[in-house]
Write the structure tokens for this entry.
Amino acid sequence: MIDEQTEALVRRLKSIEGHVRGVQRMLEEDAYCIDVLRQTLAIRRALEKVDALVLERHLSTCVTNAIRSPNEGEREQAITEILEIFAATRSVSEK
Amino acid sequence: MIDEQTEALVRRLKSIEGHVRGVQRMLEEDAYCIDVLRQTLAIRRALEKVDALVLERHLSTCVTNAIRSPNEGEREQAITEILEIFAATRSVSEK
Amino acid sequence: MIDEQTEALVRRLKSIEGHVRGVQRMLEEDAYCIDVLRQTLAIRRALEKVDALVLERHLSTCVTNAIRSPNEGEREQAITEILEIFAATRSVSEK
Amino acid sequence: MIDEQTEALVRRLKSIEGHVRGVQRMLEEDAYCIDVLRQTLAIRRALEKVDALVLERHLSTCVTNAIRSPNEGEREQAITEILEIFAATRSVSEK
């Protein structure tokens, strides 16, 4: 049984999946490039919303447990992982 | 008959579609949140590659024709649309 | 004599320069980290506005001339450079 | 007396300040637009590095204390603030 929060996330991803198929059809029907880009940007926005919800859950559960744990290593790993995600969504890629 | 370039873009999007389904399964199987985020970031990277290819084709065809056209309005619209896409992928969202 | 557009861009950059000095002071006065991050994000937003204005001018002048030029190499370079800037502001950095 | 870490951050920001002045001069000397954009992108990269260092310090100090605190409100605020920063650096701005 998956919890409600997870079900909501899966529904968002199913909608994104459908949206990706929609862009495939646009390309096959030779849609105007800017219209295609508007749709891929909308898909990226939807993915970012999923990311924010997943991160929120992660901070409230795994990160909280790790930081409250007497095991210093767990805390450091939790912080390292958050910084990894933050760095990965950096806006300006390395040269 | 769609051209090779479009076929390649559609293949990329089909792979992205499969990748999105994969993340759905990860969530259903209660995968570690950071692993989920790593996958959604990989999907976003793949989408950005599609964007770059679509933009390249757009610049080489529609934008080139619009800028070479005697119709000044076509040039201005082509420039406005490029700026719209550039602004939409701004890295820091408005307050 | 620099034109009005350039003067406006230089004024924006002088304001950004002052904003950067402001963040230096915040750090020296041990301001709350999130407040510091809010200011660096505001600086990045201001820089992106400068980028958009510079790109708009570039598209309307250099890119227009290059695409209208009989020299095919000039057109290709103009397109390559726009794609370089677009790729550099990719939102998700490579692994 | 400011600590070494803060001194290092202030030095980075002084270098960014100088870099911004450099772009002002480029504009005043009518430098090629793409060269200007390359520099503003480099400044944004440098700012993102400052952000990552500030966030790392924040996670290791304020967030750790807030999450370990018996005061549930402190924990929730710490998580909300991290999500605010994460959302603000979203890569695709809202329509």
Remarks:
- The longest helix of chain B spans residues 33-68.
- The mean pLDDT of chain B is 93.
